[in-house]
Specification:
The structure is a homohexamer of 254-residue chains.
Chain A (H helix, E strand, L loop, with lengths): L1 E6 L4 H11 L8 E6 L10 H18 L5 E4 L7 H7 L4 E3 H10 L5 E5 L4 H11 L6 E6 L10 H4 L1 H15 L3 E4 L7 H5 L7 E2 L1 H15 L22 H8 L9
Parallel strand pairs in A: 1-2, 1-3, 3-4, 5-6, 5-7, 7-8
Helix pairs in contact in A: 1-9, 2-10, 4-9
Chain lengths: 254, 254, 254, 254, 254, 254
């Protein structure tokens, strides 16, 4: 099966980190493909950037969805996730969603650890969006400036480990999620230095994408996750306009 | 003061309805100006369209925010609202937010009535986003096809009144919100046929915009609603890119 | 329009503060009138005093409601609010309700700051009563003795500003409400010393009262906010007894 | 021990029903005494009447608290309960509180059944006030006119039994509370006609009052349930004023 | 009446403490009988031990229920409570349930204080199970090793008092529950050193058991707390198997 | 990898159904092994049976955990799940947990459909236990008698499909879970007759077990999911006693 890792940020170095963390856990029949947002910001960290990044994720999916079996929206706040799940027929998984749901099977309450304070409120909205506050022990973030985002996991490794340990000690976290695409792969490195299970969101997302493809659920044809009826559009990107206007139907038997 | 009604849909006829419902309640010193989305869909009714419409609302605000004292995002689900509140310095009010908060002062629990079943889940997300389920008696919508969206309030008037009365009788609604931009102005017409207070969202939004302008709150300079630090962008519309990159600062002392 | 500020405390000096803070934000067509409770305690700060003050607020409204277009119950815990909304035909707004709902439009989560620890539990009940915990970042109060209540905002200004800043830093408050009638007017004075939007409850209440009068909602004739059917009473004040017994109906065409 | 049943309504016939239902379950060492509100309305059924009745309950307790070991506020919505718990040193129990807490030990979810639709919203507020929605399967009420309130349990017996059975069948109630002072004693009569445990609120309240007296908890001296510090009052009833002003302290060693 | 204190732990010394704390509050007509689990662990402090202890509590009740009027499951987390309430006809009360419900009548929010950190998560689950988080100010536990569990209340008295005082000061607890069977009787000893009402769970449970026996509720015959229909079993203890298979029915007219 | 399907019921025919539904979705490297409870009841459907079944599941895991890479507790209410997760070092997945978490990735709200009304309250407790009410659109069950439990999915197929369709139409379910071990495999058969994605709990559980094994999380060594310290036991089964007493440590390097 082909699984698309869609990085809604414009930083290709982060996409590389995601792919590097995804491949070791992928099954033998899985082929990981990846794409970096052609438009947007280097690293989404505000509500506005998440909104813009979500709309761009839809454009990218409109172009690539028919070539893959499932897609992962690979930014921790899951920009555009529910919209994508509505508009496309393949399973679409959010990296934060996969991380949190996987964490639920490893304890009762998870903590989310990240590297930038600006991400806090966006992540809080994300826990809300998935209805998982009852399982969340807290969100903790560093509040330090940092260099290139693709290097932040190396630069801040010791501080992130310390923060995770505080979440375990002070917030009674049963599980720790090391959140944010730039931290992809960090969990494997620091596994022995945090005394509870760690979740690497992109790794969790790959396994969840594989699970959904194997379970092969049907696309809804009624309710709010069915594909919306065709509607005219103005000024949108070609592929997305075609998808919304259902101009793709003749050529694709989805 | 100048208040911008930003219709994130592309249907100018709906903008006209909004302006017509707004002007009678505006104060003598208020000038209502309006804009219709240059891109997008005729009428937002799905998660995907709300996401796209929200991003377009940011583009429009980037172009026009410096010429008005406050802006209203005039689609019931408030697409892009929190992002706009973060990115711009003027008060930005959502039409659904204004309707629900105003309804809170007229009873304990409000019902939301609308004309298309597809809007239900989007409105549900909207009540969630504002943390107001504790005040919501329910959401009810017609489930009938309809003609041009700008005419739907005329076409379905009797059915909408009946639906509102059922919300009062069966859901114990203390207040009824007639929701959706195409219903702008309907509340005034049917006031005597529904035995509880009605809220017209655009009318409520105008009064809330006036209130915020009069109260003149400062823009946050810390926390998650401060204006984000400058960040490079790729491929975004000019005005929005300039706002995010802070290229507008020299010319504007906001 | 005439808006009544009803101070349910017996301290006239606090009424003066309220009026002074209300007038600058009132619209040109608004006439602010005020009344101080003839019975009760100098400053409500316990559950028992709130209950007594709420009953006295009903008596006062029974005497004065027909001469004004809207009334504000001007103590932060909104004593008697829902009862007044049920019993009278004009819009009745609570000062805490107006403050919290207005704050909702300026961020996601507000903090309430006040000057006496005894108020904490009463305010907590008040957030509960309005179903707004999901929007509240916390309640913080000074825990110091103070002199005359009408002077407390001068006496404690620096400490209140410091407390508000802690709410922003430690509780991630997006907005700060300076709560309690004796703090009326303080927000305008300390605006530049707290880095997020401030809400002055009486100012917010005036604008919300004006908004409701302009929107002109009908009084409910069914449901729990309709005027209750006439009922005999024993030993109540004349005007309140008349209102409950509907002896006012012949002379007043409400 | 002496337990005071305080009926905050002015109908002595309801007080008689309460006493008649209380005595059979009281322990051998318990003496039931009762009082009917000297002021107010014949039967509290609205928010305004509850507020007025709560204030009158405080007056009555101020007069009688020193002669009893515990008091029961004997109207289902518990008017004035938390205020009384704060202001007086003896245990004060609410009839609805006692009913709901007792019901919690007889199943997981209770339903509240009553005889007048007007009571619904007041009871809903009451479940809220006690934080017990998670245990409540619903509130159902008759919607019929009725004769003298002290006779309503006889007049409507068959309809109330039918309503209770619907709550069991349709709402999955594990326990049924027959709520409202005028229904005191009904549970014992219809026990065999409803297939789940019934709770008679006044009976539950008597046992809870006895339990608290036997457990002999101390009065708080810190926190929000300590007795408030002395405060001047204006125009209140003598006993209540004395209690608030702490003029009772010389003569009573509470 | 006969009330069974069922200690689901195997430590007879703890049973002795429970009986000693129960007898002084029991009414004159109450006979306290007690039993110690014949199988299991000396002191339940984990999820697994609670599960095992709950199943053993069912076995013990199957053997003894017909000889008593009510039973108390006397470990703070209430192991097996709802199952016992379903399977047997007598009232079955949980010690934590009784403590929390009683505490609700002494203030708005209670804190739970205990002696071992391992108990924290089990107690948290217990508050959840009873739907009482809205009334809980927090759970605090010592994190120290201790000697024989039956002596822990003596060994740690000063530290437990200090912890309770911190709950009052820092968490605004209105009431304190001294939780865990090994602390039975401690509340009476330290009453004067904690400035809010204390609840001793076994004392509360005795009074609640007496209350339920006096109220004499019927056993449900429909719904999920009716006695389940007879079902075959394999390999269970004799008395429990007989109860589930309804082999006890010929000899007992329950 | 070896995955154990642990059926906590004593009906081997249900184990066969589970294995038959599990194998088609298992990966090529997965070996499914299964065990049927040696003690207990043919089909768990009450709180008491779930408690007993949970304790038996611990006994079975104590005997078999060291021979497998992960275990699935294969009854919908997840009896003993959190206890097993605490006591053993391998991943332990609940069938209902896996179903609900998987459903979360296929829509916003799932409905649970089952074949016996008695299961309703147990399933409700199960949604509670996982903190997932915010994602649950409802639980619906047949209320009909049925023949042998292993045949119920054939006997009731049409009625279950109708019930699922009602959940979609009336409860707005985005996803339907066909719950209960006896329904294993049904989802695949009726896929085309229900217009939203279906989840077969055992299939979901197999994929989640594979995911956790691949992600290889460490066992907690602090917090409440670490393995509890050794403790003496009395009268428990040999393997479980050894596990709790840590007598297994010499021979097993877990």
């Amino acid at each position: 099966m082909r699984i698309l890792i869609l990085n809604p940020n414009t930083t290709a170095g982060v996409t590389d980190l995601l792919v590097a963390a995804a491949r070791p856990v992928a099954g033998p029949a899985t082929r990981i493909v990846a794409t970096t947002a052609p438009r947007g910001v280097p690293y989404i960290s505000t509500r506005g950037e998440a909104l813009i990044g979500g709309a761009i994720a839809l454009e990218t999916l409109a172009e690539q969805h028919s070539e893959v079996d499932a897609a992962i929206i690979a930014a921790f706040g899951d920009p555009g996730l529910f919209a994508a799940r509505e508009l496309f027929d393949i399973p679409v998984i959010g990296m934060s969603e996969a991380a949190m749901l996987t964490a639920c099977m490893l304890g009762q309450r998870f903590s989310i650890i990240t590297f930038a304070a600006a991400l806090g409120s966006w992540y809080r909205d994300c826990v809300d969006m998935h209805g998982l506050w009852g399982r969340c022990a807290g969100i903790r973030s560093l509040d330090e400036s940092f260099g290139p985002v693709a290097d932040v996991q190396v630069e801040k490794e010791a501080m992130l480990v310390a923060l995770a340990n505080r979440a375990v000690q002070e917030d009674d976290a049963d599980v720790v999620i090391l959140a944010g695409a730039p931290l992809a792969g960090l969990a494997a490195k620091v596994r022995d230095r945090i005394p509870v299970p760690l979740v690497d969101p992109i790794a969790a997302a790959v396994k969840q994408a594989e699970a959904l493809v194997a379970l092969n659920p049907r696309k809804a044809t009624v309710g709010t996750f069915r594909r919306p009826a065709a509607k005219p559009t103005t000024g949108l990107g070609d592929a997305l306009a075609a998808r919304i206007e259902m101009r793709d139907l003749p050529e694709a038997a989805e």
